[in-house]
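Lay summary

Proteins are chains of building blocks that fold into shapes. Our project writes down both the chain and a compact code for its shape. Here are two examples, one after the other.
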Amino acid sequence: MSEWLYHIVYPLARWLHIVSVTLLVGGTLFYELVVPKAIEELKDEQQLYIIARARWVFRWVVYVSVILLVITGAISLHRLWSAYTDHYRQALPLILGHVGLGAAGIAVALLLNVGGRPPVRPVRWMRLNLVILLVAIFLASMARHIRLSLIERDEQVTRDYRDLQKRLQQPAIAAPSTTQNTP
């Protein structure tokens, strides 16, 4: 693997993945919690206009985030797939859950933003999507925690083994002589 790929592309992909999901979750939270409270005293037609306008703007956040999440997720999954299938199998169900829930969250986000009209009860869909996305983030965090914990454990075992090897290779300390030199 070339060094530029490992040191530039992978960290950049991880960063873009985190930024994209932050925009998607943060935008959903803002759209669900802040906008309804901010417009609750306006007339119905004004509320609809503001929600439609906010939806139009948020749509582009969703589109860009979805594209970046799919690309960067594929890069990260490609990078770590053999590690999760070979060495860190305990975390594999979490990664698969992360991918599945992430795909469901992306589908709901697109459902809410594609087309001229939002679906029936969009706030409920947004709340559901917020929960889906937060659980997907949690699963990814748990999988990474397990992987890093197992790496740390393996490193500790390796250190302990090397220490044992060093101790076994040291010459034994000679016992003091019990014979006395007589003149």
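And here is the second example, written the same way.
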Amino acid sequence: MLRLIEILLFLAPFIFFAAWRISATARGPSPRIVAASIVLLGVLLGALLWFQREGALPSGSTYVPATLHGGRVIQGHGAPP
């Protein structure tokens, strides 16, 4: 999901430029397109920040990789130092 957001953030300027070129008249882009692009970029940035914080380990913890114990996979996790 994070990769999708990164790709959308990368493509956003190109998409907005194309939308502007298609819909622009001599007076420039419509206020709707400007407002929609600002809202969309804000939503994408908010989602990117939320996903970054959601997957982060607590401060000072060390990552313990996934292990196999008795035929069961123990998920990777953060452990105190």
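What can we say about the second shape? The chain has two helices and four strands.
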